Q: What sequence folds into this?
């Protein structure tokens, strides 16, 4: 029973959770379509994942194990504070390990480890409307989605090619879901786009913009491209300096004032697991101790 | 208190935040993986409503969601129970966000809200009471389904007509006893 000196389970009141839950079900029924919802004030500023937090609060059960990542890392401010928020308000277990988590809230990455059927990935979304920077009026973009009028997006990608010789969009690369709605995958690197065809449920929450959208498991998610300029999921062309991984997305870390730099896995759990399994990169600690986590 | 009032007050969640959260996860997973059957518990609605249908309504309905009680579901006991626990207005099918009843009583589908092109989410969700749920019968494919799922459905032609309206259309939650399965408008339904 809920007592007066405690938070309601997962912070939000039941009326709010019902409203979000109804939006989530309609979002799954119309994949990629942005469902408006009455986003609440949360005890953190907009831009800190209030959309993702509200979606997580609406889907969490007491039995869940929550993982929160910020650009792939479990140990950065945003991830730590959201994890603590749910430890306090929902008293759920938390974890840093992707495989152990049942709900993963993420800011701008998809974990390297493939997600399974028992998992839900909740994205924090800043600007949910992929057409917003091409057409600022909500009334117009809504009509464009209704009419499936996405020519403007292809013009933008074409102008990229005309100007730079290739599609220069490197993150928040627009996708088309199940051949119908063009969707912003949130600012994940385009390296992560192909992973969006996954076994887990993907839910997207934009708190400031008051939108919820979703991609059901095994849905078709195509990155927009042209026949003569096919989509390419690129990453920095280096191995991870700590774990030697060649297949993971890398962060560039500036080491000193003389241009020294290293490339390390953005997914800290993936990197740590590889190091623990004995994979060491060029700059790994020689005694085999984990330096980063 | 008389018996009718007593019945209206009873049968809700004992611990609403946690029980509703667990039930919603089942509904969410059902809607994400059409045809997959999930158990739900926590609510004891008055007859003839099933445990699963009652649970869905208490998890999702409130004062902002008009509910239509179709056919034999429209009893004074059920009206009182739903009003007490959710505050949802009981309305005609044309205005409903949720409609509950047996398949024949819920028909025809044309009378429900299917959303508008700008807002396809503004459509009804039908809670269809069945005698039993079985993962045999009609072949389901589409988003949320890896290869195919099977679900014993009361009819397939009306569901196909509904799917053809995509992105508009209604969504379904099939209930029997303490179990449910969902069928969003995206699912392609073929006879077995």
A:
């Amino acid at each position: 029973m809920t007592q007066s000196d405690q938070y309601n389970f997962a912070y939000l009141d039941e009326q709010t959770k019902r409203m979000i839950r109804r939006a989530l079900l309609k979002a799954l029924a119309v994949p990629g379509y942005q469902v408006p919802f009455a986003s609440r004030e949360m005890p953190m500023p907009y831009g800190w994942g209030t959309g993702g937090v509200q979606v997580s609060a609406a889907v969490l059960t007491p039995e869940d194990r929550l993982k929160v990542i910020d650009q792939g890392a479990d140990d950065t401010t945003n991830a730590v504070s959201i994890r603590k928020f749910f430890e306090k308000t929902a008293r759920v277990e938390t974890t840093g390990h992707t495989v152990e988590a049942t709900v993963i809230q993420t800011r701008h990455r998809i974990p390297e480890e493939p997600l399974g059927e028992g998992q839900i990935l909740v994205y924090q979304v800043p600007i949910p409307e992929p057409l917003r920077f091409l057409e600022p009026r909500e009334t117009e973009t809504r009509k464009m989605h209704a009419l499936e009028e996405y020519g403007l997006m292809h013009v933008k990608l074409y102008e990229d090619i005309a100007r730079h010789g290739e599609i220069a969009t490197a993150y928040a690369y627009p996708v088309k879901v199940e051949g119908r709605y063009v969707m912003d995958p949130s600012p994940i690197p385009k390296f992560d786009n192909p992973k969006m065809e996954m076994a887990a449920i993907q839910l997207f929450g934009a708190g400031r913009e008051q939108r919820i959208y979703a991609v059901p498991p095994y849905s078709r998610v195509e990155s927009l491209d042209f026949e003569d300029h096919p989509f390419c999921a690129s990453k920095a062309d280096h191995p991870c300096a700590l774990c030697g991984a060649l297949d993971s997305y890398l962060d560039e870390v500036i080491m000193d004032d003389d241009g020294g730099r290293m490339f390390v896995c953005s997914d800290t759990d993936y990197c740590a697991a590889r190091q623990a399994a004995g994979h060491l990169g060029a700059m790994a600690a020689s005694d085999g101790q984990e330096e980063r986590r | 208190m008389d018996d009718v009032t007593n019945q209206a007050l009873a049968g809700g969640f004992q611990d609403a935040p946690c029980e509703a959260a667990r039930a919603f996860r089942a509904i969410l997973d059902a809607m994400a993986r059409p045809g997959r059957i999930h158990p739900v518990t926590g609510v004891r609605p008055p007859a003839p409503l099933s445990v699963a249908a009652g649970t869905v309504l208490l998890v999702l309905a409130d004062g902002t969601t008009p509910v239509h009680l179709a056919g034999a579901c429209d009893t004074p006991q059920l009206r009182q129970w739903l009003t007490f626990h959710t505050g949802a207005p009981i309305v005609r099918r044309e205005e409903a966000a949720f409609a509950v009843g047996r398949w024949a009583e819920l028909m025809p589908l044309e009378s429900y809200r299917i959303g508008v092109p700008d807002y396809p989410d503004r459509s009804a969700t039908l809670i269809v009471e069945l005698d039993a749920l079985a993962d045999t019968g009609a072949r389901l494919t589409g988003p949320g389904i890896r290869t195919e799922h099977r679900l014993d459905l009361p009819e397939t032609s009306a569901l196909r007509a509904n799917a053809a309206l995509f992105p508009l259309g209604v969504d379904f939650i099939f209930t029997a006893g303490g179990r449910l399965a969902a069928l969003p408008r995206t699912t392609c339904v073929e006879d077995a």
In short: Residues 43 and 105 of chain A are 17 Å apart (CA to CA).
